[in-house]
Amino acid sequence: MKKKLLVVASVLATLAVAAGLALVFVDANTFRPQIERLLTSRLKRPVKLGEIRLKLFPLGLSVSDVSVGESAEFASERPFVAAKSLELRAELLPLLRGNLQADSFVLIEPAIELVKNKAGVWNYQSLTASGGGEAGSQTTVSLKRVEIEDGRIAMTDAAARTPRTVYEHIDLSLTGLAPGAAPQFTAKMRLPGSGRLEAEGGGAPLKGTLTLAELAVADLRKTFALKGLEDVEGVLAGKADWSVDGNAAALRGNLDVARARVGGIRFDETLTAVFDAAADTARKSVQVNSLTMKTSRGSLSAKATVKGYDSERPAIAGSGTLSNAVLPLTALKEPLDIRRANVSFENDAARLKGLELKLGKSTLTGRLGIRNFSAPSLDFAGAIDRLNLAEIQSLMNDSKGAPGGNPLAKITGQGSLTIGELDLGTLVLNKVQAECTLDRGIIRLSPVRSELFAGQLEGEITANTRGANPVITAKGALARVDTNRLLTSMSSVRDVIFGLLGGEFYTRFEVKPGQEMVRSLSGQVKLDLADGKLQGPNILNQLASIGRFTGAFNAPESFTNVTKMRAVLNFADGVATAQELALDLNGATLGGTGTLNLVDQSLGLRVLAVFSKEMSQRVGGKGIGGLLTTALANAQGELVIPAIVSGSLGKPKFTPDAERVAQMKVKSLLPSSGLLGILKGKTESQPAAPQGSLTPAPQQAAPENTTQKAVESLLDRLRRREKKD
After folding, report:
1. Is the pTM of this model over 0.90?
2. What is the pLDDT of residues 416-446, one digit of tens each?
3. Residues 434-463, buried b or exposed e (16+ Cβ, 10 A)?
4. Residues 6+ apart with CB under 8 A from 457
5. What's the CA dihedral at 447, 449, 453, 455 to 10 degrees?
6. Which of 68, 257, 410, 575 falls 20 to 30 Å from 385 in CA-CA distance?
């Protein structure tokens, strides 16, 4: 650097000699050709001068349109130096004796081209650093200060094959140019807007200070062609100490970054950084020995290395720790709170261990790996205390509110999770253990095991977050689930059906804020209920009223005990069609088909009730009042009552099914209590895929369309099971 400064000073001093010679003559312009030849010979480059004028206040010379061409060794279309004007301020008494002594030497709007050829030689190296006059002349030059105002310096390195880089709006002041003195300089660069970059220093080796003010990262990146900062924004201000010794450079200081953004992370408050870094310009590498970044709420401490910083893809690696870091991601309405994490990173990948982060009301602990920040691929293992899907969805900016839309749409990955409480709308799972797959907005938990209302759930849950509301597809099995709590969580059905529920399910529903899950429920469930109870008017009493029993019937009025129940229900928008329905009422069995609407709780069923022989005899047997009109008796002496069930789940209403009685008498189809067999066995049907499901269901025959055929099919199965028994 010192050599470069001396060379530039030498060129400027030689130009000053020319200006001094012009002052000896009355009309300096008369001798312009001689002066140009003299300078061309001295500099070994073509020199062109414009008008030369004497200035009296302050005393000096002014030369316009100064041009110093390039050496023949460096083929270039641009001159080595081109300046709008040159201003020289001289001392009067030495000038009268023919000795030109200048206080200052100013180049106005110069353009300086620094070129290194393929052999590694700079174009300024052929210039002399001598400040003396022409041989045999009585004129000498002594410069105290050299200045450049609003200059432009361009650098081309053919040896490194780097493109030409131009630095504009440079103000430069050089002092200490006398032989044996240590040059000192002050340089200022004005960037677009109000940004300023200032450096001062000198000595051997060179050292000094660097000051930044209102400097936009985008302007800095563009001006110095910096790599690896394409997705970084902010406004910089700070001060640092620097030193340069050969190929070694060092920088340490502090920096404030306002309105910072790194990728999708945007900071509302100013970041404060303290750093210590070293660079090797020969190896194109940077070593960040320490970096501490702080906000009012958290901090990051890190170390890093950068290799090939001038390449398109510099190699970056490092490690550090995060503590109480609040990251306001552009994709989220609330900041991501990282309580602690140990971080390691390499190029476009990072790993976080000992991680604890909080989003909304959820806290996650564990580890996280990230590859490809622009379209992240994750691997993870962690534990979440609670996770509310609707809450997480509400925290995300929509496609209109966030660049890039739904952030999950770019993310893939897989890992394992344990979740203390998983809220899928109104359905809440506890102690969840799952293998999790992320596929651009689709979250799969498979397999998943959890507690569900004092029972167990096993299967697969898929959440599709690509739309306006999450869509959940779930399939699997239940065991010993509290039926009342399950129905209460899904619908408005409360305190109606009690018991322990098991079975299989293949369902789909949409999570909409403020809406019951059951309203969008579709798919199929195969249920088994044990030790149950139906709250409301007693079913046996209602059947007794239809059959006009004369015997004593000691059944409670406010509920019905259900020893066992089995049902195959096909759901569409919360309305269940009973493909198969059978209940053991402890003395009577009941089977049927029809609809159960879980949205408004309405019922539309056609059922057959078969009383056991013992129960039939106790209530009157063939002597009941409704025999042959509302009830029939089979060969085993069991009473059979067809009925239509309407009303609601809480208040079912049983009425005689006269049409069914007539059909059964004509066809002699009188089922027995063998109906209980269906409660003990397995149905032949397979779960049907819910509409809109992401996974195809097993193929099955289409169900019969009419209630008549459905009941006849049920009776056929019942008779076949009775024969087997």
Report:
1. no
2. 999 999 998 778 999 999 999 999 999 999 9
3. bebebeebbbbbeebebebbebbbebbbbb
4. 429, 448, 449, 450, 451, 476, 477, 478, 479, 481
5. 110
6. 410
